Amino acid sequence: MINIGRGEAIQVRDLVWRLAAVAGFRGEVREDSAPSARSAAVPWQLADTTLARNLLGWEPRRSVDEALRELWGTTVGDR
User: Fold this and answer.
1) CA–CA separation, 28 vs 3, rounded Å?
2) Which has the least CB within 10 A, 16, 30, 50, 60?
3) How far apart are the first and last CA of the chain?
4) Rounded to 5 degrees, what angle do the CA atoms 8, 21, 29 make?
């Protein structure tokens, strides 16, 4: 398996806020309940891209915000 990602740790909470901003969401993001045991154990994610770099010469080209904008645009269509 080869991981593809930015290779930088990002808190999931931060990712949610950034995606909400990209989507133009102006509402409230609430965390009313305790996270599941699995979620509580993994507050952030990091893709180790060493293998992709070594085998394929691959390097990330987009920032997290650029990738979120692209994801949002392909998910709901550019408006």
Assistant:
1) 33
2) 30
3) 35
4) 95
